[in-house]
Amino acid sequence: MANGTRSVSKSNSRFTPTVYAAWISGATGAVPAMTSSDMQRSRGIVSVTRNSAGNYTVVTERGFNDINRFVCNIIQAASPPVVSGACVGMLWINNGTGATPSFDFQVMTAPGVAHDPASGDRVIISFEPKYSTGVS
Question: What is the pLDDT along the chain (136 residues), one digit of tens a residue?
Fold first, then answer.
């Protein structure tokens, strides 16, 4: 007869914390300085840089092999919103295991057009890097 207990197997992998950054966008999607009061971030983020319209590079402290989960929310400052349906359309890893581990993401409108968050919009990203043995 079952007594309601379950067996749980443990993985050999290490706990992977969620890493995050949140900032208030400047003109044309500009990212504030990492020391600005408009930028909050967890340990693990070295920098966030705007490359072009809606395209950002995130540099991390530690190398990674993959990203298990990535979420980007944009809370638009204007009411009604300036652009409906701004979302992340692409995510790619540049060099997860190199000397400067990083990945890029692209903010797009619902039709797939690159889009900069407007001045005053709040951008919030979170992700879980996947580490494996040998990645520092």
Answer: 443 433 333 344 455 678 999 999 999 899 999 889 999 999 889 999 999 999 999 999 988 888 888 888 888 888 776 666 667 767 888 878 888 999 999 988 877 888 899 899 999 999 988 887 655 4
Classify residue 25 as exposed, middle or buried by CB count within 10 Å of its CB (0-12, 13-18, 19+). Answer: buried
Q: Is residue 91 part of a domain?
A: yes
Single-letter amino acid, residue 120: G
Burial class of residue 81 (count of CB atoms within 10 Å of its CB; 0-12, 13-18, 19+): middle
pTM (two decimals)? 0.80
Our count of domains for the chain comes to: 1
Whether residue 9 lies inside any domain: the answer is no
CA dist 112 and 27 (Å) reads 21
Domain that holds residue 55: 19-130
**5, part of any domain:** no
| Structure tokens given for 130 | 């996947």
| Residue 43 domain-assigned (yes or no) | yes
Cα distance between residue 65 and residue 29, in whole Å: 28
